[in-house]
Amino acid sequence: MTHWYEHAIIYQIYPKSFQDSNDDGIGDLNGIRQRLPYLQQLGINTIWLNPIFVSPQVDNGYDVADYFKIDPRMGTMKDMKALISACHQVGIHVLLDFVLNHTSDQNEWFKKAKSDPHSQYRDYYIFAGANNQRPNNWGSFFGGSVWEPDPAGTGQFYFHLFDKHMPDLNWRNPKVRQEMLKIAEFWLAQGIDGLRLDAFIHIAKADLRQSFPVKEIANENDQTIVAEPFFANLPQVQKWLRPFCEEIKKDYPEALLLGEAASANVNLAADYTAKDHHLLDSVVTFRYFKDDQRHIDPNLPAAVQPKGLDWDAFKKTQVIWQQTLGQVSQPTLYWSNHDMPRLASRIAKTETQARSLAMLMYLQRGIPIIYYGEELGLKNLLFTAKEEFNDQEAERFITKAADWGLTKAEALKMVSQAHKMPARGPMPWTAKKPNYGFSKVSPWLEGQSQNNANVQAELDDPDSMFNFYRQLLSLKKTALFQSGSFYLLATANDSYVYQRDLANDSAIVAVSLSSQKLRIKLPSEYRKVMLTAGQHYLNKDELILMPYSGVVLSK
Ligand code: GLC
Ligand code: CA
């Protein structure tokens, strides 16, 4: 049996930044609905929306205060229903982001857990420790300890892997598991087509008395370590997730369950997605991208520096994921998302390379996920105020720029290129300054455009990045690229060349990763050009690729 999602081409929308329909500076659901013709033109068939539920927006919606209501800044339930049905009318599926590892501290459950230690909601969260002593030395992903003192002053602490305003749910408690299932099914009943399970690999935690071993214990209360082995991918994740997924699939067999498995290696990815394991359909890993250590200045904090990609590691990782998941599930294929800088700022050296890398990634076997604006070649914004980053480390670095030998402008430029927030800027629909057709007022997140890319200009230009993506996606939809087998050809590390085969149909995707002209030996029967990025020349048994160029050739 085949499911629609095996052929999904996902477009990730950051709702606050896509289109503002009522001119309050914040993108909204009606704005997305207005722009469906654009998405149809691009050729995607699924949208994934970052969180849209009621939230104090400490972490841009990943802190959910009410799972059953739409954040009024983004619209109403009526708007959501209108969006779902408008999408379905044009054959676009809708995925929602589902935050299941934690809630906002403004969620009713947490408010009750806090105000009454004897309420049943206390056990919805993870309270531990006594006499103001933290249970262990684990550190949060967002800095500092995972433990925050119980505001009620009991001398206990509550657990948060992310911001302190985002307490972790206690999945050990069967009631929590039931509640989360209820929420998921509530949204599926509204007609959505699937869920992106946010940070699901963290729902299980090790014995909380267990500190992470450190060399030397200076002052136990000060030292924290991001102790991933104690809260990522533990076996109970699968145990608790299985009934959740099974129930959903029983009631909604066509629901796509897409998991965010940031640190999962390929074997775990196979575990999470094997059909007979009754868990997820596909996962997103961050393991695709290893930083090029040679480009990191050891004297500056790593988080604020632009980092290149380690291409050797990338090539190996890609082919291993393609091979290992080949008979198991569809890998996800992506270059960027809201948690990293944009492709054109982070990796692609030229516009040609942005194209050839898209070609390389999305024509492999798997489900593309295109981050909004990537199809325009959009770059990270340049921020002019440190507060825009919404990140303590970034702010500290810019404040103290002089200590690092940088001017404030230089520091802002550096962090703007390296950080995730400048990748979340408003979609530029027109060239019209200052708000580029996104809104009539200043957008919620403002910065300077780095390449003036915009929809209007690109729609009209047959050679634009947008029109390249259109061609690429229409090629992706052919049977060969949907279902063909994949294998990597043995070429040097300055190129990435693979073949897709399906019965008698066959194509080679050849991409240069080099700033030099490259010569690659190729079987002479592959001479029909299906798609080009940059420039190439074909001789009898040889392909010549100009810097960072790519080409798709068939027989
Ligand atoms: C995921 C999201 C990220 C968020 C975190 C906490 O990693 O992608 O944006 O901050 O979960 O919900
Ligand atoms: Ca709005």
UniProtKB/TrEMBL annotation:
Gene3D superfamilies: Glycosidases (3.20.20.80), Golgi alpha-mannosidase II (2.60.40.1180), Oligo-1,6-glucosidase, Domain 2 (3.90.400.10). Keywords: Glycosidase, Hydrolase. CDD domains: AmyAc_SI_OligoGlu_DGase. Residues 12-396 form the Glycosyl hydrolase family 13 catalytic domain. InterPro entries: GH, GH13_cat_dom, Glyco_hydro_b, O16G_dom_2. The keyword Hydrolase applies. It comes from the Bacteria. The keyword Plastid does not apply. One of its GO terms (biological process) is oligosaccharide catabolic process. GO terms for molecular function: alpha-amylase activity. Belongs to the glycosyl hydrolase 13 family. PANTHER family: ALPHA-AMYLASE FAMILY MEMBER, NEUTRAL AND BASIC AMINO ACID TRANSPORT PROTEIN RBAT. This is Oligo-1,6-glucosidase. The gene is agl2.
